């Protein structure tokens, strides 16, 4: 059950002020609001009863913080009891908590199938994608926190601006000066080359790797695993041609580029899409060395 | 505009229980590296007693006149603490070497999927070599 104080006092004072001249619409809206509150109270009681009485429930400890509401500015953990269903993910449990207990619980989510990359969170001490993390595999109580090394905006929502800046710094789009002859010709890629960059194309920009990286935490200018992986995806794409590859290597071999990586493998461990990030960073390091070594 | 909440650096250090193999390898490598640098200074200090010894400088050791170099080393070796620290030094050096080899392989892009296993292997090998060295280092110390 949420430890939050309900905001009903506000509502009632509002209705008092309006009570002087109650229009039919106001009355109807009041009635509706009252019934919704009743319904919510009834449902909460029901769920609590169910949780107490029967089957499996999951205990969730969720980080809460809201800078805009006085009394919530001090970060705290709320506990929610959610009935367990087979195949339930952390995101399912969070959505249940929000819908049933506390509608102010805030977190990002969209596709719910590990494609949009909105719901990376810190679950039981690891960066996880909430929608593909099975509750059955976690130890209870499940501790859900916003991503580390990012500033918290509200509850589980963190500021992603810096992450997006780093991603954009590597120019994450296809560029080339070598066009095929015919105007309507396709730019074909060999099967081998496609295989080479296959894993790196899977990035969903969830920022789990960036959050797990100890170096990125201490060095704000470091591009970070995700951005370097993006650079790899295009630098290794043969269709871009030599001159563009040269440009890309210049970006990634800067002081705060690939050389900051100290192969802690944290990013590779947490990546929800299983991208071998460290391997890609290491390969770019070798590319950078080969690019600068000259025997003459 | 809403504020945001910065949880600060403390979370890095309070989460060591959740560190994975690669992270431990990095921490141990840093730690052993600093220990070896520290040792280097004491090593140079002890060995540099050879310079006055070459000029004939002597010291009193166990009632007899010995040259400074031999005297310093033998008296240091006589301390139980030094004997025990030598075992630790060997452990530190062996781990740093083995993990350094692991990092070399990582840099060459060899066996990155097995990086955790090679870390555990270097830990186990370090332990075995250290245990095997104990009789040599500690013999006659007690």
UniProtKB/TrEMBL annotation, chain A:
Its cofactor is [2Fe-2S] cluster; [4Fe-4S] cluster; [3Fe-4S] cluster. Residues 21-30, 36-53 have a biased composition (Basic and acidic residues). Residues 201-275 form the 4Fe-4S ferredoxin-type domain. Pfam families: Fer2_3 (PF13085), Fer4_8 (PF13183). Keywords: 2Fe-2S, 4Fe-4S, Iron, Iron-sulfur, Metal-binding, Oxidoreductase. It comes from the Archaea. Residues 1-10 have a biased composition (Low complexity). Residues 1-53 are annotated as: Disordered. GO terms for biological process: respiratory electron transport chain; tricarboxylic acid cycle. The keyword Disulfide bond does not apply. GO terms for molecular function: 2 iron, 2 sulfur cluster binding; 4 iron, 4 sulfur cluster binding; electron transfer activity; metal ion binding; oxidoreductase activity. Residues 60-164 form the Succinate dehydogenase/fumarate reductase N-terminal domain. Belongs to the succinate dehydrogenase/fumarate reductase iron-sulfur protein family. This is Succinate dehydrogenase and fumarate reductase iron-sulfur protein. It comes from Halorubrum saccharovorum DSM 1137.
Automatic annotation (TrEMBL), chain B:
The chain crosses the membrane at residues 31-53, 73-98, 119-141. One of its GO terms (biological process) is tricarboxylic acid cycle. One of its GO terms (molecular function) is electron transfer activity. It comes from the Archaea. It holds the Pfam family Sdh_cyt. Keywords: Heme, Iron, Membrane, Metal-binding, Transmembrane, Transmembrane helix. GO terms for cellular component: membrane. The keyword Metal-binding applies. Signal peptide: none annotated. InterPro entries: SdhC_prok, SQR/QFR_C/D, Succ_DH_cytb556, SuccDH_FuR_B_TM-su. It is found in: Membrane. The keyword tRNA processing does not apply. NCBIfam families: succ_dehyd_cytB. This is Succinate dehydrogenase, cytochrome b556 subunit. It comes from Halorubrum saccharovorum DSM 1137.
């Amino acid at each position: 059950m949420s430890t939050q104080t309900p905001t009903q006092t506000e509502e009632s004072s509002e209705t008092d002020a309006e009570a002087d001249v109650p229009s039919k619409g106001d009355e109807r809206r009041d009635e509706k609001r009252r019934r919704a509150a009743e319904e919510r109270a009834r449902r909460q009681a029901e769920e609590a009863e169910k949780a107490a009485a029967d089957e499996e429930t999951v205990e969730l400890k969720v980080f809460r913080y809201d800078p805009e509401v006085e009394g919530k500015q001090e970060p705290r953990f709320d506990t929610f009891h959610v009935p367990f269903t087979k195949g339930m993910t952390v995101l399912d449990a969070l959505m249940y908590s929000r819908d049933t207990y506390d509608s102010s619980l805030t977190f990002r989510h969209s596709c719910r199938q590990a494609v949009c990359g909105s719901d990376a969170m810190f679950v039981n001490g690891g960066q996880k994608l909430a929608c593909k993390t099975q509750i059955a595999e976690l130890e209870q109580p499940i501790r859900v926190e916003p991503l580390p090394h990012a500033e918290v905006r509200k509850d589980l929502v963190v500021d992603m601006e810096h992450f997006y800046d780093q991603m954009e710094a590597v120019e994450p789009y296809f560029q080339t000066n070598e066009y095929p002859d015919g105007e309507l010709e396709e730019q074909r890629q060999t099967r081998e080359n496609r295989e080479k960059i296959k894993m790196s194309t899977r990035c969903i920009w969830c920022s789990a790797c960036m959050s797990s990286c100890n170096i990125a935490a201490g060095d704000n200018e470091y591009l970070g695993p995700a951005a370097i992986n993006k650079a790899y995806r295009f630098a290794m794409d043969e269709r871009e041609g030599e001159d563009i590859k040269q440009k890309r290597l210049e970006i990634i071999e800067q002081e705060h580029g690939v050389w900051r990586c100290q192969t802690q493998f944290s990013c590779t461990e947490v990546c929800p899409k299983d991208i071998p990030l460290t391997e890609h960073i290491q390969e770019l390091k070798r590319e950078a060395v080969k690019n600068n070594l000259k025997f003459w | 505009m809403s504020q945001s909440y910065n949880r600060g650096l403390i979370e890095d250090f309070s989460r060591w229980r959740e560190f994975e193999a690669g992270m431990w390898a990095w921490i141990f490598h840093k730690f052993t590296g600093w220990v070896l640098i520290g040792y280097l200074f004491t090593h140079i200090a002890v060995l540099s007693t050879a310079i006055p010894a070459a000029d004939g400088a002597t010291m009193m050791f166990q009632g007899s006149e010995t040259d400074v170099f031999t005297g310093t080393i033998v008296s240091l070796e006589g301390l139980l603490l030094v004997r025990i620290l030598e075992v630790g030094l060997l452990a530190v050096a062996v781990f740093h070497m083995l993990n350094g080899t692991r990092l070399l392989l990582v840099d060459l892009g060899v066996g990155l999927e097995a990086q955790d296993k090679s870390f555990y292997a270097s830990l186990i090998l370090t332990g075995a070599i250290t245990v095997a060295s104990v009789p040599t280092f500690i013999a006659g110390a007690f």
